[in-house]
From TrEMBL, chain A:
PROSITE patterns: ABC_TRANSPORTER_1, ABC_TRANSPORTER_2. It comes from Acetobacter syzygii. InterPro entries: AAA+_ATPase, ABC_SmlMolc_Importer, ABC_transporter-like_ATP-bd, ABC_transporter-like_CS, P-loop_NTPase. Keywords: ATP-binding, Nucleotide-binding, Transport. Residues 3-239 form the ABC transporter domain. Signal peptide: none annotated. The keyword ATP-binding applies. One of its GO terms (molecular function) is ATP hydrolysis activity. GO terms for biological process: quaternary ammonium group transport. This is Sulfate ABC transporter ATP-binding protein.
TrEMBL record, chain B:
Keywords: Membrane, Sulfate transport, Transmembrane, Transmembrane helix, Transport. It is found in: Cell membrane. The chain crosses the membrane at residues 51-76, 88-110, 122-142, 163-183, 229-252. It is a multi-pass membrane protein. Residues 50-253 form the ABC transmembrane type-1 domain. This is Sulfate ABC transporter permease subunit CysW. Part of the ABC transporter complex CysAWTP (TC 3.A.1.6.1) involved in sulfate/thiosulfate import. Probably responsible for the translocation of the substrate across the membrane. GO terms for molecular function: ABC-type sulfate transporter activity. The complex is composed of two ATP-binding proteins (CysA), two transmembrane proteins (CysT and CysW) and a solute-binding protein (CysP). NCBIfam families: 3a0106s02. GO terms for cellular component: plasma membrane. Its main location: membrane.
Length: 354, 267
């Protein structure tokens, strides 16, 4: 099912503070979208609005081009997994999963045998065979998570909404359940929206990432686009460690304020004027200096090895800059070099300009 | 050393203040032997009083349980204008003397009251009749279910209910399958407290009942009547019976704990 969010505005109850500030979003059928952003950005608020759990002051949510006015319209067609799972503690796992079917009006409710069979199917799908008779309190975090997913999927919804579903899991379980979730999404042909504050998680599972900040969508793009062309300096920083250098564009060249950083050619269309160059630590390169540079003022301190990169910190004057090199390269000799940051993105007043 | 002193003092105090009175009641009741004591209960007025008390308690507990659940639910799960005020209002019966609340009912429904003459025309009697007794008992026992259920609902939060809404459950289904099972311990506690309080209510009922033996006398009123008439065996027998009923209601509160402990031992 495709989801369309049109000009959604939600004010904090009793105030004029905008929790959602004119948010519009189109999610095609079968997409896996991650909503990311810092706490308070409005990710969960948007997800809850899509689910119909909170009323919005204006705007609308369309499911397959049909407007959803109340939570009743969505019942059974959207599965929602809460951050703390929200399982019914007094019911067994099987009853939890069957809940959405059990509460159907008698005329629509499937036969008991069918419900039992559906529960078995879901238990198997979630790799929870034989757990049907247990109570949620007896399960591990990862198992509860999967029961919550099974419950959300019991009525056969085409849309799955997940609110920080991995927040309470330990890192190893988290990683395995992520991959498994992506696989489930593909196998069942769902349209999934995942809220997370962990950008790595988002990059790993989602086809599209929607970055939110202060109740607005800052950028909605694929992980690759996001990395190559972050819309604002906030997006650049949010998606991973970034280093910024102030400077000025003059006649098609970016000249940095710091003399140890080499100037570079900017793309066509970037006008002259002050700008900020931002770059990831692994994109920084080092080059033999030109004559005018002070060869003595860069110091590199090793900071261990992670994910195939040797980490260093470079001290340039007063500043300390992270700098990564692949482990298979030689140890860095930074004495007498200058930094090449030509892979930077350029920002002007916080917006991408080149 | 201090610990033992505190322990001894607490026990002494409890024995003196809490255990002595019921013990004395029982001794007085059995003064002329068990047979004499039981015989007093066969008096028609005594039986009428027992029945009336049971009836009033049933009605008050049922109504206050239903209202209490809904009130607690509304107070906990929603933020609305006047919520604070409603919360204070619910506790009013705890702070107002029962006699005052009894007087209020008389003021409203008595022969000289605001609605009394009107209702009289329709041949509806509230003051000095059973409905008045029920109203007075309702008022006095209103806070207990609300107050015991509210904190547990507060802890319960909205998530499970929202999950149920999204699964397509309606209001009553959510209340019955999700909200209430989560608060059943507290609810039982509240219901039994309400029961104990309703059984023993004297002040408010005394004002509105009119003390008509065999008609509007509840057990506490009948006890007073017997005692004032120097029928001490009958009075204390009735008192012992009333105390036993109220105490068993309170003891039942810990039943879920025992059951849980038994289940744990088995597991």
């Amino acid at each position: 099912m495709s989801i369309e969010v049109c000009n959604l505005v939600r004010l904090a109850p009793g105030t004029q503070q905008r929790l959602l500030d004119d948010v519009s979003l189109t999610i095609p059928k079968g997409a896996f979208v991650a909503l990311v952003g810092p706490s308070g950005a409005g990710k969960t608020t948007l997800l809850r609005a899509i689910a119909g759990l909170d009323n919005c002051n204006s705007g609308s949510v369309l499911l397959d081009e049909r407007p959803m006015t109340s939570v009743k319209d969505r019942a059974g067609r959207m599965g929602f997994v809460f951050q703390n799972y929200a399982l019914f503690p007094h019911m067994t796992v099987a009853r939890n999963i069957a809940f959405g079917l059990d509460v159907l009006p008698r005329s629509e409710r499937p036969a008991r045998a069918y419900i039992a069979q559906r529960v078995e199917e879901l238990l198997e799908l979630m790799q929870l065979q034989g757990m049907g008779g247990k109570h949620p309190a007896k399960l591990s975090g990862g198992q509860r998570q999967r029961v919550a997913l099974a419950r959300a999927l019991a009525t056969g919804p085409r849309v799955l909404l997940l609110d920080e579903p991995f927040g309470a899991l330990d890192p190893i379980v988290r990683r395995s359940i992520r991959a498994w979730l992506r696989d489930l999404h593909d196998r069942l042909g769902l349209t999934t929206i995942l809220v997370t504050h962990d950008q790595e998680e988002a990059l790993e599972v989602a086809d599209r990432i929607v970055v939110m900040q202060s109740g607005r969508i800052v950028q909605d793009a694929t992980p690759l686009e996001l990395d190559e062309q972050p819309a604002t300096n906030f997006v650049m920083e949010f998606l991973g460690e970034a280093v910024s250098f102030a400077g000025e564009v003059r006649h098609g060249r970016m000249v940095l304020d710091d003399a140890l950083v080499l100037p570079f050619i900017v793309p066509d269309g970037v006008t002259d004027g002050p700008a900020v160059a931002m770059i990831r630590p692994y994109e920084i390169a080092i080059q033999k200096p030109t004559s005018e540079q002070d060869v003595l003022s860069i110091y590199a301190a090793p900071r261990g090895t992670r994910n195939g990169y040797r980490h260093y910190t470079l001290q340039i004057g007063e500043r300390i800059i992270p700098f990564y090199r692949p482990v298979d390269e030689d140890d860095v000799q930074v004495q007498g070099v200058a930094l090449d940051i030509s892979r930077s993105r350029l920002f002007r007043q916080g917006l991408l300009c080149g | 050393m201090t610990r033992y002193i505190v322990w001894a003092v607490s026990w002494l105090f409890i024995l003196l203040v809490l255990v002595t009175p019921p013990a004395m009641v029982l001794t007085e009741a059995l003064k002329d032997g068990l047979a004499a004591s039981v015989a007093t209960l066969s008096d028609p007025d005594a039986q009428a009083a027992i029945w009336l008390t049971l009836k009033v308690t049933c009605v008050a507990v049922t109504l206050n349980t239903i209202f209490g659940i809904l009130a607690a639910w509304v107070l906990v799960k929603f933020r609305f204008p006047g919520r604070q005020f409603l919360q204070v209002l619910v506790e009013l019966p705890l702070s107002i003397s029962p006699v005052v609340s009894g007087l209020v009912w008389l003021l409203l429904f008595g022969a000289q009251g605001w609605f009394g003459p009107l209702l009289e025309q329709w041949n509806i009697h509230i003051a000095f009749a059973v409905p008045g007794i029920i109203l007075a008992t309702l008022f006095v026992t209103l806070p207990y279910v609300v107050r015991t259920v509210m904190p547990v609902m507060e802890v319960q939060g909205r998530d499970a209910e929202e999950a149920a809404v999204l699964a397509g459950a309606g209001f009553w289904q959510i209340l019955w399958h999700v909200t209430l099972p989560g608060v059943r311990g507290a609810l039982l506690s509240g219901v039994l407290l309400t029961t104990a309080r309703a059984l023993g209510e004297f002040g408010a009922v005394s004002v509105v009942s009119g003390h008509i033996p065999g008609e509007t006398e509840t057990m506490p009123l009948h006890i007073e009547n017997l005692y004032n008439g120097y029928q001490s065996v009958a009075a204390f027998t009735m008192a012992a019976l009333l105390a036993l009923m109220a105490m068993s209601a309170v003891l039942l509160r810990s039943a879920p704990d025992w059951i849980a402990r038994l289940q744990e031992k088995k597991a």
